[in-house]
């Protein structure tokens, strides 16, 4: 690694102040992506600001909203009784992320700030129409994701909470890489009073995206059969050593039908 200063502030306000004072500083959440990047010398921050002591841990339920604080781990999301009862697809998703060690260190806020194109949480956040709250504002999911590893976050902005509206039904299905556990294709389906939202991760060249053709069909009839004939174009999908664009297009249909069938 390169040399850098290290800070562990005791509050979000202190972290924000430190971040604003140094344009080359970087935030550390769970470190599941950031630490390997440092080890490979792909990033050279002047200062690392560890968010572990800022108090951003916990899950709360109020009415038809569940709020997850940014430093809450995947394991905590997977085990939470309110999430299991109200947004079962989100709990199920968290239980599939990485391995046990990753689930006990990785955080929801860190994943969303990084916005890896194969990460799972972006699909849940987008399909559920969640709001990403920062120390400065709230950002709707439809506005937050702006491309591969790109978000609406300003350089000095810190994610503090993620608020999820409770859907009528939800489910996530993932075709995962057997080594990394990242999604080769993952599909999250959420049935809400306003219609159905379908988000796809792992497949798009620009990261997570909504599948509008499936949304329209499922809003009219929430059944796996109604999307069986919908063909996802391979144009704009990833093609790599793990799967071709054409295979990913096929997997989107398979994972979507499985998610609809599983939704509760």
Structure description:
The structure is a single chain. By secondary structure, the chain is α+β, with helices and mostly antiparallel strands. The protein folds into two domains: 46 residues, Uridine Diphospho-n-acetylenolpyruvylglucosamine Reductase, domain 2 (2-Layer Sandwich); 204 residues, Uridine Diphospho-n-acetylenolpyruvylglucosamine Reductase, domain 3. It contains eleven helices and 14 strands. Strands 4-5-10-6-7 form a five-stranded antiparallel beta sheet. The protein has a four-stranded antiparallel beta sheet with strand order 11-12-13-14, with helices on both faces. Strands 1-3-2 form a three-stranded parallel beta sheet, with helices on one face. The protein is globular, with a radius of gyration of 18 Å. The mean pLDDT is 96.
Key words describing this protein structure:
alpha+beta; Uridine Diphospho-n-acetylenolpyruvylglucosamine Reductase, domain 3; four-stranded antiparallel sheet; 11 helices; 33% helix
The residue ranges in which pLDDT falls below 50 over 5 or more consecutive positions are none
CATH C-level class of the largest domain is: Alpha Beta
Q: Could you tell me how far the N terminus lies from the C terminus, measured between alpha carbons in angstroms?
A: 46 Å
The name of the CATH architecture of the largest domain is: 2-Layer Sandwich
Shape: globular
Task: Note the beta-strand portion.
Answer: 25-35%
Q: What structural class is derived from the secondary structure elements?
A: alpha+beta
Helix content: 25-40%
Number of helices: 11
The total domain count is: 2
Radius of gyration: 18 Å
């Amino acid at each position: 690694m390169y040399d850098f200063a290290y800070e562990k502030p005791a509050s979000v306000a202190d972290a924000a102040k430190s971040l604003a004072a140094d344009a080359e500083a970087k935030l550390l959440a769970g470190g599941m992506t950031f630490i390997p990047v440092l080890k490979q010398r792909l990033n050279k921050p002047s200062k690392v600001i560890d968010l572990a002591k800022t108090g951003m841990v916990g899950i709360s339920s109020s009415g038809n909203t569940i709020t997850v604080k940014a430093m809450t781990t995947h394991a905590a999301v997977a085990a939470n009784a309110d999430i299991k009862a109200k947004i079962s697809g989100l709990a199920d998703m968290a239980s599939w992320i990485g391995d046990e060690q990753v689930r006990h260190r990785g955080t929801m806020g860190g994943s969303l700030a990084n916005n890896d194109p194969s990460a799972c949480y972006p699909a849940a956040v987008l399909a559920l129409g969640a709001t990403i709250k920062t120390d400065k504002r709230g950002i709707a999911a439809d506005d937050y994701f702006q491309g591969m590893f790109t978000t609406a976050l300003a350089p000095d902005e810190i994610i503090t909470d993620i608020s999820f509206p409770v859907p009528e039904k939800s489910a996530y299905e993932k075709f995962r890489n057997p080594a990394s556990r990242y999604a080769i294709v993952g599909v999250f389906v959420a049935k809400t009073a306003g219609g159905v939202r379908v988000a796809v991760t792992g497949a798009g060249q620009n990261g997570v995206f909504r599948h509008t053709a499936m949304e329209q069909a499922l809003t009219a009839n929430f059944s796996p059969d109604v999307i069986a004939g919908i063909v996802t174009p391979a144009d704009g999908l990833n093609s790599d050593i793990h799967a071709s664009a054409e295979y990913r297009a096929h997997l989107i249909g398979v994972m979507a039908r499985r998610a609809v069938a599983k939704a509760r």
